[in-house]
Design brief:
By secondary structure, the chain is of the alpha/beta class. Helices cover about 55% and strands about 15% of the residues. The chain is built from twelve helices and eight strands. Strands 3-2-1-4-5-6-7-8 form an eight-stranded mixed sheet, sandwiched between helices. The longest helix is centred in the C-terminal third of the chain and has 23 residues. The two termini are about 40 Å apart.
Length: about 260
């Protein structure tokens, strides 16, 4: 597939790498995906995967039609300053949490600035990506991220909330997956069968709840005095659902406090 776009990614850490790999899996020529990183090992990793390499940020920016800033939040402003001289009319997308559009626009007033909040599943083209600002949609940005999964244009406040619920929570979901896997192993299932079964449960239910509400899915499995109702009863007896809900709410409040400190 060709978008007739040259894409530059500054930062080849976990998310920058996931984006690059996802774009390549979607059919984008690796030769049109340029990578820059300050770490030599990251550059060598990108080179070994066949991506175009620029050791100088300004050279990457000059080459690229769309520049994705995929560095840690604390490094974003410094990267933006390095782009200032050649940012005029460039499309620049930051995927960093907590760094507001207003900050980037102040540093790069002549660039077209956007924020994206992907999650790690972009590596397998199954991510969810929030894009902002909603009132300034850009087809180049949309077409790039649509290759990586589902997208939604939102206002910046919504994007900041999704940073927690979409970008961070995959780590929690995988912990839940691990609980199911460990329980299956304790019950005596062979590892490869347990992993396949649990993986398919998570994938299948994710698809099912897109067309049915949660209670409908649950009630379709429960039978009187059956195995499922006994397992659900244990979740309530042990307070699993309540505890997890409280943990998520408390974690979000901590994140929201940090977000307010940054604004």
């Amino acid at each position: 597939m060709s978008l007739n776009l040259r894409i530059g990614i500054i930062g080849f850490g976990r998310m920058g790498k996931a984006i690059a790999i996802g774009l390549a899996k979607a059919g984008i020529d690796k030769g049109s995906i340029a990578i820059n990183d300050k770490l030599l090992e990251a550059i060598e990793d990108a080179r070994s995967k066949g991506f175009k390499i620029y050791t100088n940020v300004k050279d990457l920016a000059s080459y690229s039609d769309v520049i994705i800033i995929a560095v840690k939040p604390g490094d974003v402003e410094n990267v933006a300053r390095n782009l200032r001289e050649i940012a005029k009319n460039k499309t620049i997308v930051s995927i960093a949490a907590l760094v507001k559009l207003s900050i980037l626009k102040e540093i790069l007033p002549e660039a077209n600035i956007y924020r994206a909040m992907p999650n790690i599943a972009v590596e397998v083209n199954k991510g969810f990506i929030a894009l902002a600002p909603e009132d300034k949609r850009n087809m180049e940005v949309e077409n790039i991220f649509r290759l990586l999964g589902d997208i939604e244009w939102v206002n910046e406040d919504t994007l900041d909330i999704l940073t927690f619920y979409s970008a961070s929570t995959p780590a929690i979901v995988v912990e839940l997956y691990d609980v199911f896997l460990l329980s299956a192993l304790k019950a005596g299932l062979p590892y490869n069968i347990a992993r396949k079964a649990i993986t398919n449960v998570f994938q299948g239910i994710a698809n099912l709840v897109q067309i049915k509400d949660v209670s409908t899915v649950r009630d379709s499995v429960i039978t009187p005095k059956g195995v499922t109702i006994r397992a659900i009863e244990k979740l309530y007896i042990y307070g699993v659902k309540q505890t997890l809900l409280k943990a998520l709410n408390d974690a979000f409040e901590e994140y929201n406090h940090l977000l307010k400190e940054k604004t």
